[in-house]
Amino acid sequence: MTKLLNRVGVDIGGTFTDVALEHARGLATCKVLTNYKHPEQAIIDGIQIATQKAGVALSEIDQVIHGTTLVTNSLIERRGAKLAFITTEGFRDVIEMRSENRFEQYDLNLTLPKPMVPREDRLTLNERIGPNGEVLLPLNPAEVEAMVATVLEGGYEAVAIGLMHSYANDAHEQKMAEALRAAAPDLSISVSSVVSPQMRELPRFNTVIANAYVQPQVADYLGRLVQRLGDVGVDAPVFMLHSGGGLISVDLAVEQPVRLLESGPAGGAIFAADFARGHGLDSVLSFDMGGTTAKICLIEGGAPKTANTFEVARTYRFKKGSGMTVSTPVVEMVEIGAGGGSIASIDTLGRIQVGPRSAASEPGPACYGRGGTEPTVTDANLLLGRLDPDNFAGGEIALSTAASDAAMTEKLAASLGMSNEQAAFGVTEMVDENMANAARVHTVENGRDIEHFTMIGFGGGAPLHACRLCEKLGINELIIPPGAGVGSAIGFLKAPFSYEATRGLFQRLEAFDATSVNSTLTELEEEATAFVRAGAKDVQTSTKLIAFMRYSGQGWEIPVSLPYKTFADADQAEILSAFETAYRTLFGRVIDDLSIEITNWSLIVATVLPATPAVERHGAGAVAESLRTRQFFDAALRQTVDAQEVARSAMTAGQSVEGPAIIVENETTTIVTSAYRAIGQGDGSLRLIRKGDAS
Q1: In 148-258, at which residue ranges do the beta strands (DSSP E only) sit?
Q2: pTM for the complete prediction?
């Protein structure tokens, strides 16, 4: 009989660090405030609390799985290494010219994002490789030596190397990297043909720059974390969740930290996808709201939607095109600055606005009593009766209603000439509308009708707001899973070991060369399998193949899933059919008489996880026992209502409560508005359905 491992999932968020410990008797969870100066300390504290709850010794932990926003935050805040970028002569300004996309068309004072590397630190080599890998201008060894001397004299902490068409032939990049390593063994060096061997120089250059920029910081942090865990008796291997939704080793995370972008939110999407499969739901909107941000992701067929590019560090936070596009596998989602710690203020037109600034954990919302003086979403929820000041975070954080009152009066209500309740309602309604609008845009961009989706809400803030979002979006069913308050950390425990290997290989479909494709795919499989086996030996794996294709003349590609096999030249028809199906799904029609091109290939190897057990779904049954009657402000009715407070533990399978109701647990609170009823399900989740819906 296989021994059940004691596995810990740890997610560091902007406000809270969430911990989930899976052990033989179940699951132990906790939330602790994030420590910004020493984030590893919050991890240690949280693990110690969880092990005490579970009765598990620290030395008995078998595996630690971690997700972090360290990479994203470093890029946004420009807190990275002193960096040199080495590129081909004539291409040093590619990252500054960008794609020439005017993301805010009518802004006459539009400010483009500053490149991550200043121009004086962008160095060039007089070499050139063509798109088919042919050497057009050889790399001069003397020039390599001179470049090494320039880097050493510049005192750089890291170097990114991105030469033209290196995805087709990496010889020049590797020669430059070898010379630098020989001269400076401790220098952090990132090579684009390793980090992102794909067509298009802008995203490839951005990706290798981002990787090099954060590499020393990530290496230092993960080194400290592993050491600190060992110091307190946790001698288990540490794995990281990458942004594509799989696990990788710490060593790979240090080598390619750009893969950690959005690793925490990816865990949330995995968490939601697991419940979608269990409940047999094919169309799900994942809603993850924490203390700093809210994330929305489409889950179809039991899997989160993924992409091979991601935009980070937007200067206009909600404007697509205003950030830095990197090419790395990622769970595709929309993220906005809407969390419990998001700060409310008055804009120049005298309107309430919420976010993107956040009080985070230091100092935190005013009600935390840690020095915060500005009103936040958490303060508004407290004043509207949706939070119990004596039972927040299981009673470990006492909330001050007086502090929330003072902040709301001083910063909002007095200036707007309204009561604190009205101001608090304005704050929550504004943040709810921001999130609802983001969900609408995300589904429309993917050609979906949001009203036919089921929402799965998790994160500390989502259960407070999810019902109101469903009202705004016309969604009739909402699932709040057990452990929702620490959903991303639990999602880490459900993730497979996986690695996505990519390669640029341009071909016109009419001239499809099966021999070169098969050779490339073999290399990709060997690369991906080696990384997966480093973390998981002797387990079954699956392989997924994606070709990125477009019509000739188009500026971007779409992902097309293909069977992984040995291709023959005669498979053109099969590939064409797959492309047209994918294109028609996205755009409603295909284009006749245009050539089709394949630009990049992506191959994903992942360990096979056990099937998610089917959940027995219950309709309304016996009425759950109420703890007491409380009051909260129902936004749809625009009035305060009497609500039954029910313990989450009382919502067993079939037990129900009619809204308005408040369902309480240690990590979060679920608000059931007057338009919904909540029903306990066989897997411990809450199923909220609109009254009058017979399903």
Answers
A1: 158-162, 188-191, 238-241, 247-249
A2: 0.87
